[in-house]
Amino acid sequence: MKIIICLFVIFGLIFADQQLIDEVNSKQNLWIAGQTKFSSWSQDEIVAMLGAKMKPGRTVRESEVVFDVPDSYDFDQDQAACKGEILDQGKCGSCWTFGTATSFTKRRCKLTQDYIAFSEQDLVSCDKDCDGCNGGFPFDACQWVEEHGLVKSSCYPYTSGNGNSGWCKSKCVDGEDWKTYKMKSGSCKSYVNENEIQNTIYQDGPVCGTMIVYEDFMKYTGGVYKHISGEMLGGHAITIIGWGEDNGTKYWKVQNSWGEKWGEDGYFRILRGTDECGIEAGADAGIPEI
């Protein structure tokens, strides 16, 4: 009897899943919804993974200065030696650490042309201003890097994919010396509109962005995402690496932390210029200390 009940539940989830996919694909042609690795996840598991906390009152604000930026830009193409790997946060609400560490990694690499991947686990386990796998504020994480710095990923590799935040360590697992790399003191800043975000990416490198995630985003397989249907699930931190246009539709190019088999080889594109899902209301980054 229990097996039969479980089968009914599974088939019910698959049916609801396909209904949402069909609805999204019938209402627009900017992006394609389909089955993803999250089709087998429960909603509770998905919500637990969305760990970006957002400050109240976030809003897009106009700048006094308008920066001159190109029509399109891709950091990973412009700075190919700084591209790095697409990572997977697993079942831990640690997206805020991936957005912070990845943007810091790429920004420092642009300055030095020396690629060093920085540790997400250092933030997950040691940043007590945030809450590990239960989520954190990206801006607070940036300030933590200003004060404490991050070690290399090879020194302190990611182990929280199972949802366990772990204990803070101060000794490298690979026998290296414990060396931290910091942001310049006071350099962490929030960029709060399209043009500001473009300018800082173009001048200094990628930023840690945050966005509201709805049910339909979990079905994203490619194209320029725009929310169509489904309830809000939570906040998510990502790394915005560039922008462009696709048949007249403006988009941000974004690196995610859900593995390279998700989306467009680990990346996604999202509508630009309309604060889609709150992505333009606050992107955070600092300047690496060299």
TrEMBL record:
CDD domains: Peptidase_C1A_CathepsinB
Highest taxon in the source lineage: Eukaryota
UniProt entry tagged with the keyword Signal: yes
Annotated keywords: Signal
Gene Ontology molecular function terms on file: cysteine-type peptidase activity
Example of a GO biological process term: proteolysis
Domain Peptidase C1A papain C-terminal: 69-287
Signal peptide: 1-16
Alphabetical list of Pfam families matching this protein: Peptidase_C1 (PF00112)
Family: Belongs to the peptidase C1 family.
Protein name as annotated: Tubulointerstitial nephritis antigen-like
Species per Swiss-Prot/TrEMBL record: Anaeramoeba flamelloides
